[in-house]
């Protein structure tokens, strides 16, 4: 499952909260105190970037002199959480002129709150593309005096964004024939004891898509389960082997 973050904290090296945003009410406001007490003050920051304390998981990463901590109360995809942190920092740097540290956060806390509301909804990551977000959040960040002003990049047309242009699909894609290939892969995992007792059993699956579509057309997909029903009916009609 995705991150489903309950809260996110930005701390300095002393453990002071620079800025935080709560997305769910399933964790208490004092969870950051648990992070300071059990992780920062015990000098265990470098041992493991994921710690579980009091039924909550802390996914944290140090960027410059700032710790970014994501608090999760349920089983979540940790890799997705780290990817969110990396892309969020890249987004902040694009607004702050390439700098991300304690001073940049203090100088741009209003802008950061606005961005945090856009890039995560109820704990689930959303669009983190700087090119797209800058079409709607036009406020400029306070640049550090030591950061150089980046070269201006052409901003995509807002009309194209509204009609379906996205940052992860380049323009001008063209194929002789519009085709989409889908593969549904399922696997059953079973763990049994030496006495034949089932210890764990789960089914996982994924849908693999290979796309050959020109441009950004509307696509409607429907899975035909007629063949599966016919096979099931055929198996039921067979006499049982004795």
From TrEMBL:
Tell me where in this chain the MHD domain is found.
177-242
Q: What is its main location?
A: membrane
Protein localization: Endomembrane system
The record, for InterPro entries, names: Adaptor_comp_med_subunit, AP2_Mu_C_sf, AP2_Mu_N, Clathrin_mu, Clathrin_mu_CS, Longin-like_dom_sf, MHD
In this record, what's one Pfam family? Adap_comp_sub
Entry keyword set: Membrane, Protein transport, Transport
Q: What PROSITE patterns does this protein map onto? A: CLAT_ADAPTOR_M_1, MHD
Protein name per its UniProtKB record: MHD domain-containing protein
Q: Which organism is it from?
A: Brassica napus
């Amino acid at each position: 499952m995705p991150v489903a973050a309950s809260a996110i904290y930005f701390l300095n090296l002393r453990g002071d909260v620079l800025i935080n945003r709560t997305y769910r009410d399933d964790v208490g406001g004092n969870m950051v105190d648990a992070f300071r007490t059990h992780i920062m003050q015990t000098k265990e920051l470098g041992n493991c970037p994921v710690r579980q304390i009091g039924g909550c998981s802390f996914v944290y990463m140090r960027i410059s002199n700032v710790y970014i901590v994501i608090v999760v109360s349920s089983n979540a995809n940790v890799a997705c959480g780290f990817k969110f942190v990396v892309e969020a920092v890249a987004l902040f740097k694009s607004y702050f002129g390439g700098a991300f540290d304690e001073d940049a956060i203090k100088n741009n806390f209003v802008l950061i709150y606005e961005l945090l509301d856009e890039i995560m909804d109820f704990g689930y990551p959303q669009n983190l593309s700087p090119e797209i977000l800058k079409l709607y959040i036009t406020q400029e960040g306070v640049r550090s005096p030591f950061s150089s002003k980046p070269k201006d990049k052409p901003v995509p047309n807002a009309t194209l964004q509204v009609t379906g242009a996205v940052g992860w699909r380049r323009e001008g894609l063209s194929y002789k024939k519009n085709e989409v290939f889908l593969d549904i892969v399922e696997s059953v995992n079973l763990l049994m004891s030496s006495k034949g007792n089932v210890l764990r059993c789960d089914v996982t699956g994924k849908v693999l898509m290979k796309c050959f579509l020109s441009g950004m057309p509307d696509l409607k997909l429907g899975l035909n389960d007629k063949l599966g029903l016919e096979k099931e009916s055929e198996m039921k009609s067979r006499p049982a082997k004795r």
